[in-house]
């Protein structure tokens, strides 16, 4: 397994947010963590990165338990790259200057400026453009491209469809499907958009009140689960 959370209890201060969360992502696997706003999805990502206090349970990278305190660079060095909400594109840097920031961990692999631009041709077309001058969808592609520059085994995306037009979400879904199918990159998708979940993921875990309450194949997501956990 690339990533395992085993019975994780996480806190912000004294606020108990995650209650025994367990999930795993294997090599090449495509997993969605779904649920309404405020149920603990982003906190789960923060537990992986060591940005929230884990008081019980274990986080493992490639089978090795991480000793507390966790640190974000440990995940990056273990081959886990995260595209956070809001992209966090550096405003004073061009597209060409933003992309290499993801390579700071110096992991070997196939992703270079050339291969990222081949995956997202718009980034090559707008290489000299300030990153924050791109459209929302293009910024999301830049954020994903920057994460790929770390040559990750697992790409975690936190609500990547947020604020994007439906046609852009479709393009994003196609790109993620290519990543997983052609490149074999494992995905953990934190998401509420059903179309993107169905396009990019194969397995799902549904979350409510800081707990995993349902799991299974995405193809088996039934109406009851959708209405209860996605509000659709």
TrEMBL record:
Q: Which SMART domains match?
A: AAA
Q: Fetch the SUPFAM superfamilies from UniProt.
A: P-loop containing nucleoside triphosphate hydrolases
Q: One biological-process term from Gene Ontology?
A: L-amino acid transport
Arranged from A to Z, the UniProt key words for this protein are: Amino-acid transport, ATP-binding, Nucleotide-binding, Transport
Xref: InterPro entries: AAA+_ATPase, ABC_transporter-like_ATP-bd, ABC_transporter-like_CS, BCAA_Transport_ATP-bd_LivF, P-loop_NTPase
Domain ABC transporter span(s) in chain numbering: 3-232
Q: Does this UniProt record's set of keywords contain Transport?
A: yes
Tell me one GO molecular function of this protein.
branched-chain amino acid transmembrane transporter activity
Q: Which family is it part of? A: Belongs to the ABC transporter superfamily.
Q: What is this protein called?
A: ABC transporter ATP-binding protein
Question: What organism, scientifically named, is this protein from?
Answer: Teichococcus rhizosphaerae
């Amino acid at each position: 397994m690339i990533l395992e959370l085993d019975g994780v209890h996480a806190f912000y201060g004294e606020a108990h947010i995650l209650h025994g969360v367990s999930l795993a992502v294997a090599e090449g696997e495509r997993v969605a963590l779904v649920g309404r706003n405020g149920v603990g999805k982003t906190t789960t990502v923060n537990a992986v990165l060591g940005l929230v206090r884990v008081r019980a349970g274990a986080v493992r990278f490639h089978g090795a338990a991480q000793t507390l305190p966790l640190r974000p660079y440990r995940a990056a060095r273990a081959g886990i790259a995260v595209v956070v909400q809001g992209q966090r594109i550096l405003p004073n840097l061009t597209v060409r200057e933003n992309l290499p920031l993801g390579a700071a961990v110096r992991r070997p692999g196939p992703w270079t400026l050339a291969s990222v631009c081949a995956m997202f041709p718009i980034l090559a077309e707008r290489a000299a453009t300030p990153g924050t001058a791109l459209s929302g969808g293009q910024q999301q592609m830049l954020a994903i491209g920057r994460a790929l520059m770390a040559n990750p085994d697992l790409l975690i995306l936190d609500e990547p469809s947020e604020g994007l037009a439906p046609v852009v979400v479709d393009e994003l879904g196609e790109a993620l499907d290519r990543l997983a199918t052609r490149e074999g990159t494992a995905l953990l998708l934190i998401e509420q958009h059903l179309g993107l979940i169905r396009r990019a993921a194969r397995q799902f875990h549904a979350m409510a009140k800081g707990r995993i309450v349902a799991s299974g194949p995405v193809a088996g997501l039934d109406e009851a689960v959708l209405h209860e956990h996605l509000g659709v």
